[in-house]
Amino acid sequence: MKAKTAEDRALLELIEPVAESQGLEIVRVRLMGGTQRRRLQIMAERAADHDIAVEECARLSRAVSEVLDAADPISGEYLLEVSSPGIDRPLTRLSDFELFEGYEARLETDRMIEGRKRFKGVLAGTDGDNIAIDLEGEEDTALIPFAWLSDAKLVLTDELLKAGAEKRAARNDNNPTEETED
């Protein structure tokens, strides 16, 4: 799910090694828009702590631009956008469902499962290649094959906002700015 279309997958193959060389993982690649002005959106994060700084986005953007300029895989004009996945991030790797266990998510499948394609509930990790999720109004934990997902993302909740604030505070504690005296 890092890349939906064949074009996205081809771009991912070009971009992923560049990100990995910088200690980053690609969360998602999407080429969006019509035939005129398209937008290539790349979401990335550090493999170590699932975070990314603005400077790292800029460095990745410059490196990816060089590769894309040389390979020229996108016809016409496009805008390159490199960013963090954000707080209500897409869940694109099986490991994301373990990492964000206990948080609320929305899942969409590419096929019907018991009469529906959309699911909302609290992530309960993984079981093999299945996503475990405690669905609203259901007693048993549901298992949804990861391969069947077409879209998945965290739901913006107070709990998720609190976790994001704690992560920012910890990051700021680890990178204090120097104060100067006048």
UniProtKB/TrEMBL annotation:
Gene3D superfamilies: Ribosome maturation factor RimP, C-terminal domain, RimP-like superfamily, N-terminal. It comes from the Bacteria. It is found in: Cytoplasm. It holds the Pfam family RimP_N. Residues 91-157 form the Ribosome maturation factor RimP C-terminal domain. GO terms for biological process: ribosomal small subunit assembly; translation. Its main location: cytoplasm. The keyword Cytoplasm applies. Keywords: Cytoplasm, Ribosome biogenesis. GO terms for cellular component: cytosol. Residues 14-88 form the Ribosome maturation factor RimP N-terminal domain. Belongs to the RimP family. HAMAP family: RimP. Required for maturation of 30S ribosomal subunits. NCBIfam families: PRK00092.2-5. This is Ribosome maturation factor RimP. It comes from Brevundimonas viscosa.
